[in-house]
Each structure stands twice: as C-alpha cells, then as structure tokens.
Specification:
Blueprint (H helix, E strand, L loop, with lengths): L4 H17 L6 E6 L2 E6 L15 H14 L5 E6 L3 E3 L12 H21 L4 E5 L2 E3 H8 L3 E5 L3 E3 L13 H5 L1 H10 L3 E2 H6 L5 E3 L4 H13 L3 H17 L2 H18 L11 H18 L12
Parallel strand pairs: 2-3, 3-5, 4-6, 5-7, 6-8, 7-10
Antiparallel strand pairs: 1-2, 8-9
Helix pairs in contact: 1-2, 2-3, 3-10
Length: 302
C-alpha cells in the first residue's frame, strides 16, 4: 500500500469497517436508492457535531464513503444532516484536548485525510447543506464536489471565535478577501450570501430541498459513469496544479500552532475560554464565546 502513514491508516480503517458497518452505523444513516447513496449525519441532538476516534463520526463517515465507492450500483453520493443542522462543527464535548503542537499536528493531519475521503471518492459527492454549517462542518462540506444549500442554511467559521483554524481550502472557493472576513470576524452568513460569494452552487427553498437534491443526484447518476469519474479527476487535478494540495500540506504546521495556542483564547470580556468552560460548563462557554457576535455585521438585503 502506497501513500503517507495517515493515508494508509485511513485506508486501513475504511477497509476494516466498510464491509461490516454498512447499515449499522451509530452516528449516521446509509441508504441507497436509484443508484444514489445518501449518507446522513445522524446526531440531531448534538447538531451533528463531528467527533473523532475509532468510534466517532469521522471514522464512520470514512467507512460509509468506502462502502459507496466500492458499490458498483452507486453512481452518486449525497451527504446531508438530520434535524436543523448539516453539522455544527467539531464535537467540543466529546473529543479530548490535544497537548502541544505535535499532538495538534497529528490531529490536523488525520482530520485532513478524513476530509479528503470526500474528495477522493470516485463517485461525485453532493453536500446537501440542510441547516447550520459551522467550523469543521463547513470544512467537511468544502471537500464535496458540489454544495447545494437549503434556504434555512447558515454558514461560518464559528470555531475561529475560540482560536480555531482550517481556512486553507477556502481561498480556492471564495477568494482571499471573503476567506479573511469569515475567519477574522467569526461572522455567520445566510445561504443567499454563501451563493453570492461562491461557497455554494445554488439555494433551494426549504420545503423543496429534499426533492431537488434527489433530482440532481439522479441526474448525475444517469450520466455515463466512466466519463463522470474520469472528468472528476481531471478537475481535481487542475485544482491541485493551482496549488490546492500544496496549500493543504503547508497549512498543517500553522494549523497545529494555532490549535495548540487556542487554550489561551479569550472571550470578549477578557476571560480565558478554557477557564469559563471549567467554571461554568459548556453552556457558559458558549455564552462567553458568542457574546460579542449576537448582532451580525453584514446587513441582509430585504
């Protein structure tokens, strides 16, 4: 087996779990119909937060993508979320803290390879963003081939409010200035604004969302499958030649430093967020993190 160690580890995890876990996932649903595989993040009570580790959401998602990729009947994959969120981001309550830059680097490397499972899937992947799409959830959606948003969707790097990172893919999607704005401000944007800046391809009314996603997926599934898969590789190679792959590799070291310094991130009132979490619990942490951002800076057009 070729590739880097994290790539080999991810492939081994997928190989070990994909044949036994299809239809029996704990954190997601896997369904197929009319040559379309639908993977639904299924933790609505946690807004589909992305947990790590051998039994976490990341591992199951990699395994589910491997199931779809190996199934000759599947021609297209839809990734969506249950409830009112696509994904609220990383699971801050489930994942243990990482101590030091090296631990952060290893975490970032593994997470990046898990996200790359969407891009590396031979079948086209549609991110059907049904609701809230924040932080790591937004990074996950960014690795899909096409992003379609419900009118109820909201987007943003909410984790930047506590010193988070992960912006490296977005200059290729939305340009330098919007990438800086979203990361520097922690601003949340509407589905229409996401379409305006090129973050999503189209916005669909919430009441027609499932129907329109199904229609798009089945249109893709009806295309000549060999041509679709090879043309996907042509386009992804073009992105890599423009610098996407090298940018992702180079960013891991900086992301590790940013992550390792996030323990000292302060709320707007000057308190360390880690202290607030220890003293007031998770709800207090969220109040402190978001207190300065309750009024959006961007004014929505009427």
């Amino acid at each position: 087996m070729t590739g880097t160690q994290p790539q080999r580890d991810a492939a081994a995890r997928a190989e070990a779990t994909s044949s036994t876990m299809a239809g029996r996932f704990a954190h997601l649903r896997y369904e197929t119909e009319n040559r379309v595989a639908t993977i639904t993040l299924n933790r609505p009570e946690r807004l589909n937060a992305l947990s790590h580790g051998p039994t976490g959401v990341h591992a199951e998602l990699v395994a589910a993508l491997a199931v779809a990729d190996k199934d000759p009947e599947v021609r297209c994959v839809v990734l969506t979320g249950a409830g009112r969120a696509f994904s609220s981001g990383g699971d801050l309550q489930a994942d243990p803290p990482h101590e030091g830059p090296l631990a952060w680097f290893r975490f970032m490397e593994e997470e990046d390879h898990d996200f790359a499972a969407l891009r590396d899937c031979r079948k086209p992947v549609i991110a059907a963003v049904n609701g809230l799409c924040y932080g790591a959830g937004l990074i996950l959606a960014a690795h899909a081939d096409i992003r379609i948003a419900s009118s109820a969707a909201r987007f943003g790097f909410i984790e930047s409010r506590m010193g988070g990172t992960g912006i490296e893919v977005f200059p290729f999607l939305i340009g330098i200035e919007w990438s800086k704005f979203l990361m520097f401000t922690g601003e949340l944007i509407s589905a229409e604004k996401a379409k305006e800046i090129g973050l999503v391809l189209e916005v669909v009314d919430e009441d027609r969302f499932a129907e329109r996603i199904r229609d798009l997926a089945q249109r893709i599934a009806a295309m000549p499958w060999q041509g679709v898969q090879l043309n996907k590789r042509v386009i992804d190679t073009a992105a890599d030649m423009m610098g996407l792959h090298n940018q992702k590799v180079a960013a891991r070291g900086i992301n590790a430093l940013v992550g390792s310094s996030s323990k000292d991130a302060e709320a707007a009132d000057g308190r360390r967020l880690t202290d607030v979490l220890a003293q007031e619990g998770f709800k207090g942490f969220l109040r402190a993190r978001d207190a300065a951002f309750r009024t959006p800076w961007l004014e929505e057009k009427k």
